[in-house]
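Module 6 notes. Inverse folding takes a fixed backbone as the condition and produces residue identities as the prediction. Think of it as a translation problem where the source language is geometry and the target language is the twenty amino acids. Below is one complete input and output pair. Work through it position by position during the lab.
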């Protein structure tokens, strides 16, 4: 296992906004570019992430110029490895793990922190709490979770990942793997519980985006 530092300064963490999805539950629109209080969802997420990390990347696969206008480097999903292309699964979209793979490939710091573009008000201490747990438990992955009626509910797109995992996630995706938790279970991992369940409210549909606009503290986030 790679040596893990006693602390993780923010400049050692690259942030990644996951905006590469298909937006199928929003009718195929580009979810990260949908507006909340006049700003793209991905812009809200990137701003919140930039306050907690060093460099911020945005993973997107269409409307790249619009994402670039947010002021951060845009990266696309990696092409399948040549050895895996012939055996590609029938499902065309590999999900957030493809973003993990692209982010780790572009990451130039020891750690990568991923967040979903449709969850603009994730905890302001996300990086700090995940980093603290990763160091304490000597983990290569720290994954956020919340407490639900039936126990812990994982938030698998909110992960702190060690850069040494790049080859592992790429291989998993190329072999047809799609489940974040299935991949993560192969490595030293810690689940980190956050009490503010509402902070992980995400807009998967246009109706949920309307609810987010009404209920989330947009004004306080702006100021």
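Target side of the pair, the amino acids:
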């Amino acid at each position: 296992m790679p040596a893990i530092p006693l602390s993780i300064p923010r400049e050692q963490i690259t942030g990644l906004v996951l905006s590469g999805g298909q937006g199928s539950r929003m009718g195929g629109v580009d979810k990260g570019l949908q507006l909340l209080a006049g700003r793209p969802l991905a812009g809200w997420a990137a701003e919140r992430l930039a306050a907690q990390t060093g460099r911020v990347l945005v993973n997107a696969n269409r409307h790249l110029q619009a994402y670039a206008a947010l002021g951060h480097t845009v990266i696309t999903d990696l092409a399948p490895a040549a050895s895996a292309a012939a055996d590609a699964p029938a499902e065309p979209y590999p999900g957030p793990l493809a973003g993990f793979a692209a982010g780790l490939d572009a990451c130039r710091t020891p750690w990568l922190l991923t967040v979903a573009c449709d969850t603009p008000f994730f905890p302001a201490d996300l990086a700090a709490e995940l980093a603290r747990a990763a160091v304490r438990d000597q983990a290569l992955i720290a994954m956020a979770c919340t407490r639900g009626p039936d126990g812990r509910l994982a938030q698998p797109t909110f992960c702190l990942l060690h850069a040494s995992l790049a080859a592992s996630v790429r291989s998993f995706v190329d072999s047809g793997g799609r489940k974040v938790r299935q991949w993560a279970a192969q490595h030293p991992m810690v689940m980190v519980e956050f009490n503010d369940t509402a902070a992980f409210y995400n807009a998967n549909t246009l109706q949920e985006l309307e609810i987010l606009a009404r209920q989330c503290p947009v004004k306080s986030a702006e100021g």
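Reference fact for the lab report: The first strand starts at residue 13 and ends at 18.
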